[in-house]
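**Fold in tokens:**
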Amino acid sequence: MSRASLVDRATTQRTPARLVRVLAAVAVAGVALAGCGAGMQAQTSQQVAAVAGASANGGGIAVRNAEIAYPGGLSPEAAIYPVGGVAPVEMVIVNQGAQTDRLVSATSPAGTVTITGEQTVAPDISLVAGQVAGAPGGKQVTIEITGLREDILSGRTYPLVLTFEKAGRIEVGLPVASPTVARVDQAPEGGGGH
């Protein structure tokens, strides 16, 4: 056999093996790059629990379902609470630590925050502000934002900082609760149809 035919034959035999290695490397690189496509903001990084209100944690204290209560019978288009008024806050506070703690104060740029009722949070006992569904058996506390500096509007979030003796400061953004009745749209005058 001539030298040229031996080289031709060796090249033909190596080509499928080389092609398989190149295709495997391309496949591995494609998978690696596809993982990079999710970036720092994957879809699941922005998901939150399907419960009302906001949540926050700090120093063994868990704040759940925190929100500004929506008053019954109010049109969803109106200001929820006007300047100078009082906005009741709803939330559940749970002490997940081993020591009893105490809610000593709260502040908000929306107004002055008042706390009345039970403020001691024993381990594994909930402190309930307002009418929070699914929180039976907790001790009652009343938290209100008084002397509102601005109208409280639906769809906005208002900052609240809770301060505990041991756990320290816990900041939570209070959304306004959803209305309990559906919005009723007015029909055009004159009964104009479609």
